[in-house]
Every structure is written in C-alpha cells, then in structure tokens.
Amino acid sequence: MWRYGMGSGTKTTKLSLCVIVLLTVFGGALSSSAAQRCFCRVTGSLDDCACDVETIDSFNNKQLFPKLQKLLTSDYFRFYKVNLNKPCPFWTDNSHCGLRDCAVKPCTLNEVPDGIRTGSQKQPSEASGDAAEECERAEKLGAVNSSLSEETQKALRDWNRYDDEEERFCMVDDEESPDSEYVDLLLNPERYTGYKGPEAWQIWNSIYEENCFKPYTVNRPLNPLAKYSGNITLKHECVASLHLPGLCVEKRAFYRLVSGLHSSINIHLSARYLLEDNWFGKTWGHNVSEFQQRFDETLTKGEGPKRLRNLYFLYLIELRALAKVLPFFHQPSFQLYTGQPAQDQHNKQLLLELLQVAKSFPLHFDETSLFAGNKKEAAKLKEDFRMTFKNISRIMDCVGCFKCRLWGKLQTQGLGTALKILFSERQIESLPRSPGAQPPFQLSRQEIVALFNAFGRISTSVRELENFRSLLSRVRDEM
Fold this sequence. Notes:
Elements: H1 9-27, H2 34-37, H3 53-72, H4 75-78, E1 79-82, H5 114-119, H6 131-146, H7 150-167, E2 181-184, H8 198-209, H9 249-271, E3 273-278, E4 281-285, H10 288-295, H11 303-324, H12 326-330, H13 341-359, H14 375-395, H15 402-422, H16 425-429, H17 445-478
Antiparallel strand pairs: 1-2, 3-4
C-alpha cells in the first residue's frame, strides 16, 4: 500500500499503533460502525455527471496517477514562481503563522535551471525553435517596435495584458515583480502545518459566505469548534438544496468545485499529518481520526459524504480540461523548456502520453450543459461565475500560513486555468497548424505548472481515499 512517510515494516507497525492511539484520543473510542460511515454514501453515480465513483477510482489509481506523479517530479513542473508577500486585499492582516512547518523555503537562483529562469518571461511555445528562428523573430519585432512610439508600445502591452485577463478565472502573480520567487514544490510539500484557529477559519468562511453559489442548508457556522446555532438563510437567490431544481446547474457546479477543493485539501492534511515530533525527527502519516472528523456522516451532520462526492466532481472538471487542451500541447512549437533539450523532449512525450490517457476516459463531464439557454443571461452568469472565482483566488493572499498560501494560490490558479480551458473550446480548435502564426489561445508557464500540479493534488486525494478505506477497514477488524 502506498503511504506518505512509511519506508519499512517497523514504521508500518508503528503507524498502526499510532492510528489506534489517535482514534482513542480524538475519537473517544469510535465504534466500528463509525469506521464505515465516511464512505457509505460515496458510491455510484455522481449528480450532474454521467459517471460513477468506482469508474473514477479505477481509472485514476491504475492508469493516470502513476504517470502524473512521474511528470510532476521533472524540473519543468517542480519549480513554481509565486509572490507570497502580497498584502491581503480584503482585511487588515498582520498575523503570520510562526510555526516552523508554515515556512516556505524559496529557491536560490543557481537552484533553478537556466532555461526556466531565462524563458519564464516568454510563452512556452516561444521558448522553442533554434537560434536562427529566435534571431529572425527578434529582428522582425525590432523593426516593428522601432516604428512605434514608447507610448503606443506601452498601450499595446497593456491591451494584451487586459485581453489575457478577460479570459482568466483567477488572479495571477506578476512574475516580473521583485517579490516573486521560485519555489521547489517537492521540497515544500502540502501537509499538516498546525495552522488553525480563527484566522484559518476566517479564510474558508469568507470563501463560502461571500458568494451566493451554494445551498443555504449547509450547516453554519463552518468552524466546527464554534457553537452551532442552526442554519442561516442566505439571500433569496440561493435555494434550499443541491438536489432541488431551483439552484441552476452553473451555481451548483460552482459550489461543488469550491467544496471539492476544500475536501481535497483536508484529505492532504489528514494523509500527511504530523504524528510524532522529537529529537529523532518528524514522522508524517495518515491520521484516521482527523479524516473521520472531517468526513464522517454523523460527525459532520451529513455533510462529509457530500464533500467527498464534490471532490470527484472537481476531478471530472479538471480531467475534462486536460483532455480538451491536448491540441495546444501537441503543437510542434511547444516544448517544456528548461534548457536541457533531451530531457525536455522526453518530458513532452510523457506529457502527451498523460493527456492521451486523460482523453481516453470514457465518461467525461459535459461542459456544454453550462451557460446554455438565453445567450444574454448565460453571458452574465458566466461573467458572475468568473469574477466570483477570481475573487476567491484573491482571498489566498490573506492566508497567514505561507505554505498554505503557496498551495492555496497554486490550486486556485490551477482550477482557474482548467475553467479557462473549458470555455476556450473554439480558440483551442482554431490553433494554427503552421509555425509563426499568432495563436488565439495561450497558456503561460505559470498557468501550465499550476494546472498540472493542481490536478496532481486532486488525483492524489482520490488515491488517498483508497488508503483511508484500507486503514478504516483495518481499524474495524482490530476492534
């Protein structure tokens, strides 16, 4: 069985003992029936999708997950440029987590491959080609630029930036900012940091409460440590339940995406939990009790299984985006440029194989069901959808734990990029087949790294559910 932080039979035995201790301490000797409740309703078909949980589990765990993990260890995907010092735009935030595990270690310049550093200001497809093509392109650009005033050149740059922003579903960091730094994602993994309390819950409360794309029967407050005071009715535009027809499919999808992302993060924290910290070192592993507190049907007042089903919905959305973006990566001019030609070509082949696997999934989400109907109303709803998610991506700059902020920004940007792909079908289909033409659709390296690492997190969550099923079964057998 695949696990974080386990390398020998001794450690496995030790973890089993830890699981039993954690169940006793946190769960108050949870019954055997409680050990089954997390998954009892996470089976069968998914709402709004022609797919079922079992098909996704088999496809992800056996076909896609191993290829994706291999790709994400390559240099192109492990280095992510991010600004972790942007101020919170919504409230005065002077509190930063002082825990050691909240810290992020940025890369020094010599740790980042030259090709990534020098090519990061280019679009990925621009980084390809031989030296002669680069010189010819530079001469042409120079000739054009020399005929334009500085004011006109600035206006063109601003217009291109504005045009790109019109397509985006999330805020992105300015890679040219002196505050933006490269981070090695493999050396700064997403796991439990100890960041909790009012500051942490303010983030999720803000995300859920400041948009209306949710049912009002979700229990309030979201902080499980606060005293429950019953349901709070939201604005009249929101309706009673995910399963009632009054909530349109677009708003229902929006809520499920956010809930699925929240669920995925909680699974990561439960799977890479700090089990032991002493002078021998730290032991990270699965905390079954933590998982149950977040997903058990009874302990969460019925919300836990819904949260897990929303994780699968998020998986289908991002998987569909990977299948649709294949023509972009298939362009001869595109490469995963790091300055190491042989390795870059090998990694592009791995990428294309992965995308072919994604495309082969038999029951993809049908995005044509979104923003259909009256064109004017659909356009307004789509813009509301885009701006609301963009607002959520800005909330990530309010997270006090820098490691949580890093992975929050990456995963919201990854999901935002997936949405950008889903709603750019015509632009992707009309990508030029001859080199030199201006493409109607483009992704920056930052967007590409975020897209695949974000899906890597979702894929890992689905894989971890199998681990938790096995651990819960073992605990049940030992009771």
